[in-house]
Amino acid sequence: MNQDQAFNPLPPFVSPQQNLTSANTPHVTTVDAVHPSTQTPQLTTIPLHPTAFFFRPSNDFCHYYVNCKEICYDTVTYLLNKSPNENNVQPNENECIFYYRQQIDTRFYRVSCEIVSPILINDYLNKNILGIYSQNLEQENLTFTINQKDNLEYHLKQYLSLYLLN
Predict the structure, then answer these.
(1) Residue 95 host element (H or E)
(2) How far apart are CA 134 and CA 124, in angstroms?
């Protein structure tokens, strides 16, 4: 993520606490299937979550910009059926991409993640919190390790399972 992209307005981050306590947050209500003669149905509320947000796993010091893009079933079928020889995509060390199936409505998403530059975070905080403007011309080459990608995918899937992407 470059410096120009970072200062463009992005959807606001909504913490789980804000999502659960906000009276204005839209919710989806589902009914759990139960035996009708023994219990009344229990209502479960699933908070909505934006598809673009920042995320930091609890066991990682890096922050990530995450973008979830819904994909159609034709794309899923194509990805499942294409042969390994057709996979000419070069791995991008600066991006982590995986696919996620939302359990509540079985929609599929292409989840792409980029490491947010620590320099960019410092510049943003200095500018917006302290009013300090700095010209940082430093370039960072931020790359994912295999373990970092696996860890991020695992924690994001756990996190996303608590929400309904909208």
Answers:
(1) strand 95-101
(2) 10
Global pTM exceeds 0.90: no
Q: How many CB atoms lie within 10 A of CB 157?
A: 13
Residues 124 and 158 in one domain: yes
Q: Which helix (H) or strand (E) holds 70?
A: strand 64-71
C-alpha 166 chain-centroid distance: 12
Phi then psi for residue 48, to 5 deg, are -80, 155
Phi-psi sector, 59: left (phi>0), alpha (psi -120 to 50), beta:
alpha
Q: Are 52 and 92 in contact (CB under 8 A)?
A: no
Mean pLDDT of the chain: 76
Q: What share of the chain is helix, strand, coil (3-state, %, to 5)?
A: 30, 25, 45
Give the domain extent around 113. Answer: 50-165
Q: Kindly report the number of other CB atoms within 10 A of residue 115's CB atom.
A: 20
